[in-house]
Amino acid sequence: MQSCTITNGGCGPHAACSHHAKTNAVQCTKKAGHTNTGSASGDIRTVNIRANAKWTQNGVTIAGGQLYDPCGLFVGDDQTVVIADFGNHRIMQWKNGNTTNGEVVAGGKCEGNGLHQLRYPTDVLIDKETDSLIICDYGNGRVVRWSRRSGTTQGEILIENINCYGLTMDERRYVYVSDYGKGEVRRYQFGENIGTLVAGGSGQGSGLNQLKSPAYLFVDRQQNVYVSDYGNYRVIKWKKGATEGIVVAGGQGAGSALTQLNGPCGLFVDTLGTLYVAEWGIHRVMRWTQGDKKQGTVILGGNGAGAGANQFNGPVGLSFDRHGDLYVTDSRNNRVQRFSIE
């Protein structure tokens, strides 16, 4: 469990550490004159959610009207949400409190392979160190970086010739990317195009040393990599340096039983090791507690495909903010829903 009494809660030397009153999550507040307050990516990796936590079942739409088949999303320290707007070939940003108007922050110049264009982006993260976006440009088979500074009109290519689908970053600023076609996950340092194999790599398949159409990723502070192994209907965890993974959710074929996953996509792991998974195929969000690999719990959705406040139609991306509120991209409803922790 993350604590302010241990290494300042991971906030670094230039931030004050405190605990949120409701969730007990570590909160990092920048000190005057400093801006780098947490992990290099700005992702929320210190959310500590109590084991019996519940969320309001009716979501609030915090982004919509300008999206077409949204995929991965990323929630920054300040609750700014960036979204891979798959069908519109762009990245959209919604700032906290503004649920009316989003802002195009990358792409949006029709689909194409120019440096000013994207084609079917599937995932995105914020790199605080360089104040930039790292984007899985799925349709162009590349990973690109776009500065968040005002006036930016094009990106730069970081990794080429990769069937990228999901990406994430650890505290050391290594980027992890899933290759949907090869069935593997690689870790990259900035400036390299080959990377180090960290999951899969033995061809497409269902063995513990294999992946089948891996999609989204999560990496914890121990550099354990969690993969939504879409084609195998499971989430698999690869410890650092391992040659095969451990099934931590699903793996019992596609279905709606609590022992199964159907189209696992976005995932998140809190500081207790609890896993949260968005299921595209069965329109729900599941929670799997650490040590219980046999059965999960439905925490959101599961009410059939629909556009109601308590329904999803193809949920894909999933993330939390520091308060423990949960964000889900509801792809076929072309919206992002926020569910408040109770």
UniProtKB/TrEMBL annotation:
SUPFAM superfamilies, per database record: NHL repeat (SSF101898)
Gene Ontology CC terms: extracellular region
Keyword Cytoplasm in annotation: no
Top-level taxon in the UniProt lineage: Eukaryota
Record's keyword terms, sorted: Glycoprotein, Repeat, Signal
InterPro entries (alphabetical): 6-blade_b-propeller_TolB-like (IPR011042), NHL_repeat (IPR001258)
CDD domains in UniProt: NHL (cd05819)
Keyword Signal: yes
Ranges: NHL repeats: 306-342
Pfam families in UniProt: NHL
Signal peptide from the UniProt entry: none
Name of the protein described by the UniProt record: Uncharacterized protein
Organism expressing this protein natively: Rotaria magnacalcarata
